[in-house]
Amino acid sequence: MFDKILIANRGEIASRVIRTARRLGIRTVAVHSEADTKAMHVQMADEAVCIGPAPVGESYLRGDVILDVAKRTGAQGIHPGYGFLSENAGFAAACAEAGVVFIGPPIEAIRVMGSKAESKRLMANADVPLVPGYHGQAQDFATLSAEAERIGFPVLVKASAGGGGKGMRVVREAGELADAVAGAQREAKAAFGDDSLLLEKYLARPRHVEIQVFCDTHGNGVYLFERDCSVQRRHQKVIEEAPAPNLPDDLRRRMGEAAVAAAKAVNYVGAGTVEFLYEDGGFYFIEMNTRLQVEHPVTEKITGLDLVEWQLRVASGAELPLRQEQLTRRGHAFEARLYAEDPQRDFLPAIGTLVRLRPPAENDHVRVDTGVREGDAVTMFYDPMIAKLIVWDEDRESALRRLRVALAAYEVVGVTTNIGFLGAIAGHPAFRAVEIDTGFIERHRADLLPPPAPVADEALAAAALSVLLRRRKETRESLRARPDPHSPWLFANGWRLNEESHYDLSLMDGETARAVTLHFRPDGYEVVVDGGAPIRATGVSFEDGVLTAGIGGARVRATVVQQGLDLTVLIGGAVSRLKLDDPSARAAEQEGGSGRLTAPMPGTVVRVLVEAGQVVEAGAPLMLLEAMKMEHTIKAPAAGTVSAVNFAAGDQVSEGVDLLVLDIAEA
Fold first, then answer.
1. Is the CB of residue 63 less than 8 Å from the CB of residue 91?
2. Can you tell me whether residue 171 is helix, strand or coil?
3. In what residue span(s) does the Biotin carboxylation domain sit (predicted)?
4. Tens of pLDDT, residues 265-302
5. Residues in contact with 283: Cβ distance below 8 Å, sequence separation at least 6, in sequence order
6. Which domains does the chain possess?
7. 3-class SS letters over 383-400
C-alpha cells in the first residue's frame, strides 16, 4: 500500500479521496490554484502546494507541474479524481515514465475508451450491443450528412472525445444538421481540444443505465451492480439512483457481464463505468468512463464498500477484495447534485459567496460529499457543484422520502441553486412511479419549472418579523452603550404617541411592492399583508438567522438571511427572495434596464450574429457566449433595432456588462 499520494484535483472529489486515504493511514498531498489557497481540500491534506493561477489551463491541467510536485514531495501515486487529468492518456504515460503510479487504468485503455468512435468499433468486435450509428474517421460535412440520412432522423451528434453533455446536439431533421455539427464542433474543440464527431440513432425514450466495474492486475474483473442516471438536463446527470428500478434480474446480470467483457477487451484495471442506453428490453453501449464516476457514492451505499479504497488497493498491486459471487447489495440509494445554477434561466451557472451553507445532519441514511464551506466562493473558474447529497434506505420509496426531507433541510444562501428543482423532481408523481427516461425533465418541464409565484404571506411575515427583531437587537445594543441603560427607548416596541403600536414595512417581491404591517400585541404580533386579514404570530424568536414562531396557528421555522437590502427566506425547502423597499435604489435599477442586454455571467464571446442598425424580431439570436464550457445564446427580449454592439468574437466579458444595446420598438 502507498505511504503518500498526491490528489491531482480539487473540491468535492479531492476532499473525498483524502478522507479514505486518512482512514487507511496514507499521507496526502493537495495541489491548488491561487484561487483555492484556502479551499477545503487544501486544509484537509497533510501537505499542499500551489501550482499556478486560477484558470485550469494554468494550474489543474498542468500535468508537468503536478508531476514535479509529486516527485518533490515523495508521493508514490497520483489520484486524478474525475475531470481534469483523470482520462488523459498523455498524463498517465508521463506518470509511468516518472515512476509515479497513476491511480487509474492503463494508458491504452484510457486512449481507446476516450475516443467514442474507436471504443465503439472495439465493442462491436467484443459483441457488446451498440446503438446504430456512424463512428468513422471521415469528418467532412458531406460524409456526416450522408451517414445521418442512412441512420435516419432523429440523430444524435456527439463529440468523439470527452463527455458531460458537451459537444452534443439532437437533430430532428436534415435542415438542422449543419448548425448542429458546427456548434458541436466548436464546443468539443473548446472543451476537449478535439472537434471530431460521431453520429447515433436518437432513441425516443431510453433510460441511461450504467454498470460499475472493477478489474485488477491479476486478471480478475467484477461488476458492482448498476445505477440509473436517466434524469438529465443538457445530457448531464441530475439525480442518480442504485439499483436501477424495475429491471429484471436476468437483464441486470446480462448488462453486468457485458460491462465486464467491455472492460476486459481493453485489459482494464481499476474503477470504471460502462454506460448503456436501455429501451424496450434492449441495451446498447454508449461509452466507458475510465475513472471514478461522480455518482459512485450510491454504489457505495448499496454495497457497503469504499470504492476509493478499492482503487488504492488495486493500484498498489493487490487483488480485488471480493469476487463476483461475494458481492451483495442492500436497499436503495439516491444522489442529487446540488449546483450553483439558475434553473429558471436555462440552468446558467451562478457565482457568489456562500453566505449561509447548512447541510442536513449526516447519519447512516444521509451523506453529504462537498468541497466547500460556509463563506467560500463559487467562482467562474470551476464547476459550480456545491455538494452531492446521498440518501439510503431499505427500499426506493423510503429512500425517496428521505431525499425529499434532506433537500428541504439543505440551506444555501448567497448563490442561486437548483435545490428547489431537485425537490420538484423527487416529489413528482411520475418519478415516484418510475416513469423515467432521459427525456423526463423536458417532458415535465412545466411541473418542474413553473413560473415564479408571488411570495407567500407566511414568508413575508417571517421576513418582516426578522427585520423588526434584528433592528430591535441592534437598537438595544447601541443604546446599552449609552450612559442611561434604563432609558425607555431600549424597549423598541413600536410605541407611538396617541396611536396603536405598530411597525410598517415595504418589501419588493420582484417588481411588486408588498406592504407588511406588524401590530404589537401582548402575546406577540398581528401581521397584515397587503391590507388582508390579520395573521397571528406568537412565540416569536430569532437566533442565528433562524426565526421560529406560531404563524397562523402553525409552528414555522424559517431561515432569514439579510445582505444589505436583500432578504432570503427559506421555509421547508422553498426559497423566497425579497428586497427592502428603497425608492432611490429601485429608480436607479429601472433607469438602466431597458434595451441593454447584459452578460448573465463571465465568459467569452463566440459569435456576434447582428450588427448595429439591424432590425430584429423578439427572440432573435444576437450573440453566442461561452461560459463554463457551455454555449449560451443572447436573444432579443422584444422587437427593435440594434443600436450598439460592444464586443466582438473572442472578447472576454465580465458578468453584468452591456453586450448589446437594443432600441425596443414601440408597441
1. yes
2. strand
3. 1-446
4. 999 999 999 999 999 888 999 899 999 999 999 999 99
5. 129, 209, 251, 254, 255, 258, 276, 277
6. 4-103 (3.40.50.20), 111-128+206-330 (3.30.470.20), 132-201 (3.30.1490.20), 332-447 (3.30.470.20), 457-586 (3.30.700.40), 593-664 (2.40.50.100)
7. CCEEEEEEEEECCHHHHH
Q: Which grid coordinates belong to 235?
A: 445530457
Q: Are strands 554-563 and 546-551 parallel, antiparallel or unpaired?
A: antiparallel
Active site residue 291: yes
Q: Are strands 502-509 and 512-521 parallel, antiparallel or unpaired?
A: antiparallel
Helix (H) or strand (E) holding 96: helix 89-98
Query: Exposure pattern of 336-350 as b/e (b: 16+ CB <10 Å)?
Result: bbbbbbbbeeebbbb
Alpha-helical segments (H) within 99-158 = 107-114, 116-125, 141-151
- Assigned C-alpha cell, 651: 472578447
As a 3-state breakdown, the chain gives helix, strand, coil percent values, each rounded to 5, of 30, 35, 35
Q: What are the beta bridge partners of residue 413?
A: 356
Q: What is the pLDDT of residue 590?
A: 40
Site of grid cell 508521463 = 94
Tell me: cis bond preceding 349? Omega within 30 of 0 counts: no
Distance separating alpha carbons of residues 7 and 29, to the nearest angstrom: 6
Q: Which amino acid is at 446?
A: A
Q: So what's the pLDDT on residue 607?
A: 93
Place of cell 447489495: 329
Comparing CA positions, the residue from 452, 340, 358 lying closest to residue 406 is 358
Show the low-confidence residues of the chain (pLDDT under 70): 162-164, 478-500, 582-594, 628-630, 667
Name 107's Cβ contacts closer than 8 Å, sequence gap at least 6.
Answer: 89, 92, 93, 96
CA atoms of 475 and 481, how far apart (whole Å): 10
Cβ neighbours around 144 below 10 Å, total: 22
Catalytic position from the list 291, 337, 404, 514: 291
Cβ 637 vs Cβ 611: under 8 Å: no
Contacts of 390 (CB under 8 A, 6+ apart): 297, 298, 301, 333, 334, 335, 366, 367, 368, 369
The CB-side HSE value for 631 (13 A sphere, CA atoms) comes to 25
pLDDT on residue 164 = 67
Please provide the size of the chain in residues. 667
Q: What is the pLDDT of residue 587?
A: 42
User: Which residues in 544-638 belong to E strands, given as ranges?
Assistant: 546-551, 554-563, 566-571, 574-580, 596-598, 603-608, 615-616, 621-627, 630-635
As a whole number of angstroms, the distance between CA 369 and CA 297 comes to 9
Q: What is the structure's pLDDT at 630?
A: 67
Closest CA to 459 of 535, 358, 403: 535
Cα–Cα distance measured from residue 348 to residue 245, given in angstroms and rounded to the nearest whole number: 31
